[in-house]
Amino acid sequence: MHFPFLLGSTGTEGKMKVSFKMNLLLELLGFLLLSEMLFCIAQGNVHYYDFVLKESNFTKLCSTKSMLTVNGSFPGPMIRAHKGDTVYVNVYNQGGYGVTIHWHGIKQLRNPWFDGPEYITQCPIPAGTNFTYQVLLSSEEGTVWWHAHSDWTRSSVHGAFVILPAEGTTYPFPKPDEEQVIVLASWYKEAVETLIDEALRYGGLTTLSDAYTINGQPGDFYDCSNETTYRMSVDYGKTYLLRIVNSVMNTDMFVAIADHNLTVVGWDGSYVKPLEVSYIMITPGQTMDVLVTANQSPSHYYMLASPYFDGQADDFDKSITSAIFQYNGNYTPPSIPVYPSNIPGFYDVPAASFFTTKLRSLASPEHPVDVPLNVTTTMFITVSIGMMHCPNDSCAGPAGNRLASSLNNISFANPKLDVLEAYYRHISGYYETNFPDKPPHLFNFTSDDLLTDNVTISDQGTRVKVLNYNETVELTFQGTNVMNSGENHPIHLHGFRFYVVGTGVGDFDNVTDPLTYNLVDPPEANTVPIPKDGWATIRFVASNPGVWYMHCHFDRHMSWGMDTVFIVRNGNTEESTILPPPAYMPPCETDSLNGPRQSMFQKEE
């Protein structure tokens, strides 16, 4: 077995190498003990990456700040592999606080130890130490991504994860001439860790971003930015595959290129029937594979990413980031690039709904669907923004309360020991297995007068849902307008890809709405938008034993408690049993960002 990350070639200082020594030895022991098993699991090629987490200086919007990055880049490095490969990523934490990394959209079959969400499947990697992730690729194909899963650290710690077709196969569409990763992100002038610490400490609104970026650059419409606008050079007549990742913290985005149609061919690491559109709507957490042909007169054309917001609070960053889709060749460039006339406005709900309801799986012999038909477990989950009471009305939220968010009126609290460790070692006291299958009471979820304590005040707890292996699960998410705060919520489920079988507006009707389900070619995804004052239904088979996080991918909502955990029990065979843990896991000693002090949403024992 070959482990190049043990050779010390990352440029780290000698002192850091010494501090890593014990961890590396433990990891090597674990790899050797599991080598025979891993040989059987790793059907494809094996790849190795080094990620060095460290503070780096960046100057944008006329000011300079230091922020945590991987290998000094923003966005971080791209990982490339083929379907079915295995990837090892050794993360050296040279930052000032603990961090974890999540492999978003990768199921990690039977392998929850390396999924990454802090206090769910591991505790943070302490500063001055390292941890090697084993990423097992299975059915994923297309674009997914990786990001930090500790507080709001993913604002600067993220990157694309490209999964090419398996060796000997190809795309289900004409092979593009070239491809380009497009990463959308948020930019904050201030230190993000300070902003989220203050917001959670006082219980009020979180600070909005100062800009959005495309491949790390804000673009022409921000101060001190037009010299560094990202430019994508293209040749006339060529077709390009855009691998688009939305890493924006709290905002859905419309994306368009002036005068160019886009053809969506992939969503969340799976293929879809080609959908030709003039724009896309992509939520935080989602990825899309989009074809664009350079078939217009050679010139400069703006690529824009513009926010979409459907809530009443109107608290979002109302700026637009730009890149330039720039033709090669001899021509006189325009003084100003061509501006998209087709990009929807900030509040264009019909445009967003039109796009999201048109996506369909390929459902072809090479890429079949397997939609669960015989449901054994049904859950109805309300998705709400609310409050929790503060002593003496001392918080910065409405009426002196703390802003909170919830699923079925439960605001999730992080335990001091990660849920996976507690479950696997049979350690009691860190979570409860009573996450409800439905909200505590039913009411008109989309009403405009949901302001009383019986609907606005949520309970706090570390409550999880336990599933038996191979249960067939249907989840219906109901958006609510509690506190007049309804908005679109992108819900992400770790460990699975699910089928989005239905979506609609208003209160879900369990008699008539299931008649509208698409059980023939529904799109397969890992992140689903729940429309404002509407609902969405997903189905999946619980065939991945382990501990799997589910949460809103608006980070402020996740921080406020809009999350829960599924525990999938082992089946009766070795192939349906969680893989054993590695020899070393990061210790559960401190909060990732705030030292030994608990965050406001860590569970008290």
UniProtKB/TrEMBL annotation:
Binds 4 Cu cations per monomer. GO terms for molecular function: copper ion binding; hydroquinone:oxygen oxidoreductase activity. It catalyses: 4 hydroquinone + O2 = 4 benzosemiquinone + 2 H2O. The keyword Metal-binding applies. Keywords: Apoplast, Copper, Glycoprotein, Lignin degradation, Metal-binding, Oxidoreductase, Repeat, Secreted. GO terms for biological process: lignin catabolic process. It is found in: Secreted, Extracellular space, Apoplast. One of its GO terms (cellular component) is apoplast. Residues 578-605 are annotated as: Disordered. Its cofactor is Cu cation. PROSITE patterns: MULTICOPPER_OXIDASE1, MULTICOPPER_OXIDASE2. Its EC number is 1.10.3.2. It is an enzyme of class 1 (oxidoreductase). InterPro entries: Cu-oxidase-like_N (IPR011707), Cu-oxidase_2nd (IPR001117), Cu-oxidase_C (IPR011706), Cu-oxidase_fam (IPR045087), Cu_oxidase_CS (IPR033138), Cu_oxidase_Cu_BS (IPR002355), Cupredoxin (IPR008972), CuRO_1_LCC (IPR034288). It comes from the Eukaryota. Pfam families: Cu-oxidase, Cu-oxidase_2, Cu-oxidase_3. Its main location: secreted. The keyword Magnesium does not apply. Residues 54-166, 179-330, 435-571 form the Plastocyanin-like domain. Residues 591-605 have a biased composition (Polar residues). PANTHER family: LACCASE (PTHR11709:SF349), MULTI-COPPER OXIDASE (PTHR11709). Lignin degradation and detoxification of lignin-derived products. Belongs to the multicopper oxidase family. This is Laccase.
